Amino acid sequence: MSFPWAQQYQPKSGFTRWIDEKLPLPRLVYNAVGAGYPVPRNLNYFWNFGVLAGFCLVLQIITGVVLAMHYAPNALVAFDSVEHIMRDVNWGWMLRYAHANGASFFFVVIYIHIFRGLFFSSYKAPREMIWLLGVVIFLLMMATAFMGYVLPWGQMSFWGAKVITGLFSAIPLVGEPLQIWLLGGFAPDNAALNRFFSLHFMMPFIIAGVVILHIWALHIPGSSNPTGVEIKDESDTIPFHPYYTAKDGFGLAVFLVLYTSFVFFLPNYLGHPDNYIPANPLSTPAHIVPEWYFWPFYAILRAFTQDFLFLPAKLMGVIAMFAAILVWFFLPWLDKSPVRSGLYRPLFRKFFWFGLIPTMGVLFYCGGAPAEEPYVMLSQIAALYYFAHFLIVLPIVSIIEKPKPLPHSITDAVLNHRTGADDAVPLSTTGERPTDSRPGPDDAGLYRPAGA
Amino acid sequence: MTDAIVEHPEAVQDDTQTGVRRRDFIEIAAVSFAGIGGIAVLFPLISQMAPSADVLAESTTELDISAIQPGQSVKAVFRKQPVFVRNLLPAEIAEAAAVDVSSLRDPQTLAERTKEGKENWLITMGVCTHLGCVPLGAGEGENKGEFGGYFCPCHGSHYDTAARIRKGPAPTNLLVPEYEFTSDTTVQIG
Amino acid sequence: MARFIAILVGLFFGVILLWSFGVGLYTWATEEHETTAEHVFYEHPRDAKLPSAGVFGTFDVQQLQRGYKVYKEVCAACHALRHVAFRDLAQLGYSEAQVKAEAATWQVPGVDPNTGEAASRPGLATDYFPSPYPNDIAARAANNNAVPPDLSLITKARHDGSNYVYSLITGYQDQPAALLAQFPDAKTPNGLHYNPYFPNLNIAMAPPLTSDGQVTFDDGSSSTVASMSRDVAAFLTWAAEPTLAKRHQAGWPVVLFLIIASILAYLAYQNVWRNQKH
User: Fold this and answer.
1) For C37-84+129-243, CATH number?
2) Helix (H) or strand (E) holding C269
3) Any transmembrane segments, and where (chain C) (predicted)?
């Protein structure tokens, strides 16, 4: 669907008209990320990160395909082939550092993208499907990143493979055979390395496919915006091109400055020295930690230290770690506040900035720290809040909170630069729609009664 | 750009003529920078497929030829391809010299294909110039073809004792690689 | 309904976490906190002040040559350098002929061309540095059950690796009396050597550089233990990442280009948006 005022693609020459009749690909691009896509005019820099994430995916695919031309997925030579890339292949060192740091920066971008969605409640109707597909992308990314980290076949690769596949052994009855099946052996070896390489190569293309669905789903209701008020008429929007292409271009350039600074000057800062030691099945590194982007979830895994009734600690840790992400799937139905944007939700905003964000910080820190006190106790408290935030705080806050009045429209918010002006419509939770506003394409979700 | 101005004609009046030009220049500069950056990125992506340092390091081969008797030839490896080193008999040299050069498909004398004073050492690539098969004739008892040199069994190219193409589809003589005698008994190829 | 179930699930996780937390807190509060000698006496590496450090870091070719000599005459007796080839020595400022001659001074494993049996032959430029031991078992047997690690990636395989190598080699000392007073059981075992820069304080490697002048440098530089350690740390930094200097050199133009591109992109963005309120 599109907005009735969206600009229409006009083929300029006979050739483009011919193409448009046979395969309207330029039209598709025009409507998706061109002038044919009307976007709220008030997006802030946090809305840059979707495009940045797409850029990271392309970056990883290109550098990854190139590295695969030199890498050898065999336990005997994998480590040496990576060193061959670093030392002998023309620009190999740059390509490998670009890929390794590209993974880290992809996660930086994705985390900001996700937490932007959490703050502005981008998961709410009518955008549930965008959010659900986004969580799927995040899960696929984690699997891809994990398998990619195994490929250099250093100490952290090996023990990471062992520990992460060990998570599946926590499943009652089928756990042990499942782990052996996943590895194709009793410990990570050639079989595991080969299949991880195969899957690591394939999964980015699946991610790309889900990204297309994610963007498709986005274009049904259109982009959200910092006020959370739906688009009402043409004055609320501007064409994606040239406005947001220009803004995204600026964002991309700044991103590249930071990213290349790491690639050229701190290429191993985000990695771990032990992964420059070849895999040794007979000796575990002193402090084994996953890559930094897994630390919050790794802290949740390790927070479960005691068997509880009939539930073994190991199983609960694994369940909780997966639940920590799976809970995101249910957010559209847990947070029923009629107001989207955290800017107009005083209570929610307090819990977000003083609860969730510090909690993520503590989990991040504890996940990277050794498994000793006080880190374990800290991560237990943080994990407790993490689950409480999504499962208890959000549902209750969405009932008891009295939101600030919303602006009439995006244009109104932009022109007046204020939140909760006198003439703004106080939003009631009864679902009454202001009569003077034209119905936006899909503003039903915004004004849906709280209990619906 | 034009869309924005058309949508908001009142804004156009603010722009002086020079202002528009300066602003256009900034956009052109920004897009040009993006283009330059994109092209620069292509360089390592293309360059990485060229031979790596370890491959290039093996691009010269040193051979000890002291054990090769007259009439014998050996097959050595140069850049992962066979190279034929042949110690020609006087009769073979005479046979090669007797050929009318102008009648050849790729006219060359034996002297042009060997080093001065070392005319008996014929060093050629063992790669048929037709489609890259390895010709026979370097090994003992192999078919040397109708002209006593090399014979490529893939498509029937016959080379003479100076490894010149005489019959069959190959377009040129067997390639003589760059080489030099570092001493009387050692040759460095490449 | 969804929210009711969610609150129950939240309470479920909460109760289990509180249980784990409670038991952990009780254990932590009631048990004695034993600290270990390495917690108290471990020291972080000292700055070796290598020219390769920092974002402008590059290699000092003379220093690398000295460091190579230290490696060859001292370290190579026990430590391999398997990812480095003799041809790489050209980067240390040696000519092609010098590299060839240097390679020939090393014996590398080969094959007897007549019998096909294992034999050793002088190295070629294309060969990699040979390992001093045929395998780990031999290395273990010859070194009091400790395998000397390969050194070709050592400065990347340790935290702050270049400084670590320098500090470790210069860090041998007698076990402090304070340590034995606090931890009577932590006496350095026989056959190990006390070194505060080694993570568990007791290292199997005997002090490799013990006296000034142990290696004579061709350029006449003084060879104190400290300077030899610094030179070999520089050499191993190069061995771990020969492209380091090139990386720094390539990085500056790239980052500066992108900073200018960012400024231009910002101006272009402001320009495109000049008539739009947002």
Assistant:
1) 1.10.760.10
2) helix C244-272
3) 250-269
Cβ of residue C87 closer than 8 Å to a chain B Cβ: yes
**ipTM score for this prediction:** 0.94
Q: Do residues B88 and B154 touch, judged by C-beta distance below 8 A?
A: no
End-of-domain residue from the set B10, B29, B47: B47
> Are residues A84 and A70 in contact, defined by beta-carbon separation less than 8 angstroms?
yes
Q: Taking the model in full, what pTM does it have?
A: 0.90
Answer yes or no: do A70 and B4 touch at CB < 8 A: no
Can A219 be counted among the known catalytic residues? Answer: yes
Specify whether the CB–CB gap between A429 and A413 falls below 8 A: no
Question: Is B155 tagged catalytic?
Answer: yes
The phi, psi pair for A165, rounded to 5°, reads -70, -25
Q: Which residues in B99-123 are b (16+ Cβ under 10 Å) and which e?
A: beeeebeeeeebeebbeeeebbbbb
Residue B95 sits in the same domain as residue B40: no
Backbone φ, ψ for residue B189 (5° rounding): -95, 135
Helix axes A92-119, A49-68, angle to 10 degrees: 150
CA A193: distance to chain centroid? 26
> Nearest CA to A165 among A145, A147, A151?
A147
Residue B87, Cβ neighbours under 10 Å: how many?
Answer: 17
Digit-by-digit pLDDT tens for chain C (278 residues) are: 888 999 999 999 999 999 999 999 999 889 887 888 888 999 999 999 999 999 999 999 999 999 999 999 999 999 999 999 999 999 999 999 999 999 999 999 988 878 889 899 999 999 999 999 999 999 999 998 899 999 999 999 999 999 999 999 999 999 999 999 999 888 899 889 999 999 989 999 999 999 999 999 988 888 899 999 999 999 999 999 999 999 999 999 999 999 999 999 999 999 999 888 77
Output the domain CATH number for residue B99: 2.102.10.10
Cβ density class A262-289: b for 16+ within 10 Å, e for less: bbbbebbebbbbbbbbbbeeeeebeebb
Closest CA to A223 of A204, A247, A205: A247
CA distance A213 to C144: 61
Closest of C60, C67, C11 to residue C245, by C-alpha:
C60
Give chain B's contact residues with A (Cβ, < 8 Å).
1, 3-4, 30, 34, 43-45, 47-50, 52-55
The full set of domains in chain A, from first to last, is: 21-288 (1.20.810.10), 297-403 (no CATH)
